[in-house]
Design a protein that fits this description.
This protein is α/β, with parallel strands linked by helices. Helices cover 45% and strands 15% of the residues. The strands form 7 sheets. A 6-stranded parallel β-sheet has the order 21-20-19-22-23-24, sandwiched between helices. Strands 1, 4, 5, 8 and 9 form a 5-stranded mixed β-sheet that branches. It has a 4-stranded parallel β-sheet with strand order 12-13-17-18.
Length: 713
């Protein structure tokens, strides 16, 4: 979304990353369990990429540091080559094409053959794989840090190649004017802005310092001033288990010079703190880049904050938590450094491409300009009482549902009722996202139908999808539980077509493009204070779904834009969660007080959904009672009550669709164009340009004449 918006806004921006040979695994569901398969996405070639061997660059690992009068030298290193592949990123109808450059690891041709061990030539060639493994596979963890050496190699690999590329481009430009001997880097931060997407590229900070100090021979203070002005850091999570904390021993082995530079950065940083807060040793401990106690670790978030001129969260509530809780000491020191940049999505992919029916309907009412300026969607408020428009919006949704129902029938051999409410919960499987709470609601609905089959029940198709990290046991158990519940519910003749449960296999962007336009109800039910922003929530809103959600992440701003009465908001706020933590959360209390919750939990615990293996879900039940950090039981009652309100409104198709229109009309803020304009203005200090570059087939002078007449401007 960000690359699409940067190109559409005419920014000269590059996206850098790794060209993984294997992306996120393909998920298969076998007997209700997740099974991973390798995603060999390049098997049939990739027509959009172009290898650029002429820009190949060396990246160094291991070795040792020599100190001489001339300064530090990193020697005896192992070299891996970084081969760039370029993918074009076209802006929307503006003849601008930017570049995404992804690096692939290659062994140098003399790899393992440099020394006098030429004896085993065959083995030396086979060992080239060791170097090339760096870009082999994406680590599939979501919101979890796993301190593996290969992962640190990947992080440094992308950073080292990218910084060399940036500096090469700077030196080739008129700004890197060389006074015969040395490049003048004073203008570097005016020409280059680097946005650190989470802490994964944090090694860019010591790497740029290494280049400036060791190679370009700048004095430390000058180098540090330029470095800080160049970098800005975006934080993406507040979960402690997700924060990167690399063991000092590992960094010392892999990147010895960088460790020395990090120690120097830390020393100067702590000296500064000590001068401001004399004798406050606890503050020094809290703010250090190095965590002592047990194995010494480098806190990469602290490194990013100290080495950047701007730090931002990705939704208002998240940025507040970043400032007042997670990094409060740093915010007290430099409050002006901390900002908010609420995430956004590109309306090109997430409306025009995936939902052409709705996009066309909107264009008929307000024109086509909204595609580049999504704030124009507010014009739809004029049509909220237009009966014809209401019917047309409902018709587009119904067509999308029919199309998706056909897809499900073809792919999964399940027959679903297209007039039922499509209740959709798609995202990575994680305890904080509370797929378990949705599961308990499904069981509750099931029990209500069985208790009173004659009672009016608003039919639902509940669709849950998402991948669990391969090593995340609880997330895999949650998938198995959902599938076990689905099996019982879908085969109970008493239930019939009133309730169907589908676990959507291998959820990914291409599948999101199909399911989101067909959704009636979007589930955004994380425990308040845990989801940094979310972007699926915005995609659903733009595509005519209503949201049931907690006051978390961007849900808060969605409610602010549309009016809280136009979302189904329920449950604890951040303050309530904090208060409950203070009192102590006692799950048993809710279990004993709420008969429907007790019944659902007892069924899961007693093997009602797993008769062949009655204690299959004992770990899940035990977690919910004794160590549920995300307090599923505490929000259960409010959630079920809120779901009753959802069903009630769904019975009134016209009232439902009017609420849908109010949501679409309020979705304009959540365009990534708005987000990128804010980054450009507040952090990068660049101006977006809406000048349409003339197409290559048009003579330049003709294009200039047009511009003067104001048609191409």
């Amino acid at each position: 979304c960000f690359l699409d918006s940067m190109a559409t806004l005419g920014l000269a921006a590059y996206g850098y990353g790794i060209r993984y040979e294997y992306g996120i695994f393909n998920q298969k569901i076998r007997d209700g369990w997740q099974v991973e398969e390798a995603d060999d996405w390049l098997r049939h070639g990739n027509p959009w990429e172009k290898a650029r061997p002429e820009y190949m660059l060396p990246v160094h690992f291991y070795g040792r540091v020599e100190h001489a009068a001339a300064g530090a030298k990193w020697v005896d290193t192992q070299v891996v080559l970084a081969l760039p592949y370029d993918t074009p990123v076209p802006g929307y109808m503006n003849n601008t094409v930017n570049t995404m450059r992804l690096w692939s690891a290659r062994a140098p041709n003399d790899f393992n053959l440099q020394d006098f061990n030429v004896g085993d030539y065959i083995q030396a060639v086979l060992d080239r794989n060791l170097a090339e493994n760096i870009s082999r596979v994406l680590y599939p963890n979501d919101n979890f840090f796993e301190g593996k050496e290969l992962r640190l190699k990947q992080e440094y690999f992308v950073v080292a190649a990218t910084l060399q590329d940036i500096i090469r481009r700077f030196k080739a430009s008129k700004f890197g004017s060389t006074d015969s001997v040395r490049t003048v880097f004073d203008s570097f931060p005016d020409q280059v802005a680097i946005q650190l997407n989470d802490t994964h590229p944090a090694m860019a900070i010591p790497e740029l310092m290494r280049i400036f100090v060791d190679i370009e021979k700048l004095p430390w203070n000058k180098a540090w001033d330029i470095t800080k002005k160049t970098f800005a850091y975006t934080n993406h999570t507040v979960l402690p288990e997700a924060l990167e904390r690399w063991p000092v021993d590992l960094v010392e082995k892999l990147l010895p010079r960088h460790l020395q530079i990090i120690y120097e950065i830390n020393q100067r940083h702590l000296d500064h703190i000590a001068s401001l807060y004399p004798n406050d040793v606890d503050r020094l401990r809290r703010m250090s880049l190095i965590e002592e106690g047990g194995t010494k670790r480098i806190n990469m978030a602290h490194l990013c904050i100290v080495g950047s001129h701007a730090v931002n969260g990705v939704a208002k509530i998240h940025s507040e938590i970043v400032k007042t809780q997670v990094f409060e000491d740093f915010a007290a020191l430099e409050p002006e450094k901390f900002q908010n940049k609420t995430n956004g999505i590109t309306p090109r992919r997430w409306l025009l491409l995936c939902n052409p029916g709705l996009a066309e309907l909107i264009a008929e009412k307000i024109g086509e300009d909204y595609v580049r300026d999504l704030s124009q969607l507010t014009k739809l408020h004029e049509f909220v009482d237009d009966d014809l428009f209401i019917r047309e919006v409902a018709k587009v949704k119904q067509e999308n549902k029919m199309k998706f129902a056909l897809y499900l029938e073809k792919e999964y051999k399940v027959k679903i009722n297209p007039s039922s409410m499509f209740d959709v919960h798609v995202k990575r499987i994680h305890e904080y996202k509370r797929q378990l709470m949705n599961c308990l609601h499904i069981v509750t609905m099931y029990n209500r139908i069985r208790r009173d089959p004659a009672r009016l029940f608003v039919p639902r198709t509940v669709i849950i999808g998402g991948k669990a990290a391969p090593g995340y046991h609880m997330a895999k158990m949650i998938i198995k539980l959902i599938n076990a519940v689905a099996h019982v519910v879908n085969n109970d003749p008493v239930v019939g077509s009133k309730l169907k449960v589908i676990f959507l296999e291998n959820y990914r962007v291409s599948l999101a493009e199909k399911v989101i336009p067909a959704t009636d109800l979007s589930e955004q039910i994380s425990t308040a204070g845990t989801e940094a922003s979310g972007t699926g929530n915005m995609k659903f809103m733009l595509n005519g779904a209503l949201t049931i959600g907690t006051m978390d992440g961007a849900n808060v701003e969605m409610a602010e834009e549309a009016g809280e009465e136009n979302l189904f908001i329920f449950g604890m706020r951040v303050e309530d969660v904090t208060e409950l933590d203070r009192e102590g959360y006692n799950a048993e209390e809710y279990y004993n007080r709420l008969p429907e919750l007790k019944q659902a939990i007892d069924q899961i615990a007693n093997g009602f959904f797993s008769p062949e293996e009655p204690d299959l879900f004992k770990d899940v039940v035990n977690m919910l009672f004794h160590h549920d950090r995300f307090k599923v039981f505490a929000d259960y009652e409010a959630y079920v009550t809120c779901q009753e309100k959802v069903s009630e409104l769904y019975l009134n198709s016209k009232a439902w669709t009017k609420m849908v229109i109010r949501n679409i009309a309020a979705a304009g803020k959540f365009s990534s164009d708005r987000t990128i304009k804010e980054y450009a203005r507040d952090i990068w200090h660049v101006e977006p340009s809406d000048l349409k570059i003339p197409p290559p087939n048009e003579p330049r002078d003709a294009a200039e004449d047009k511009t003067l007449n104001g048609t191409a401007a």
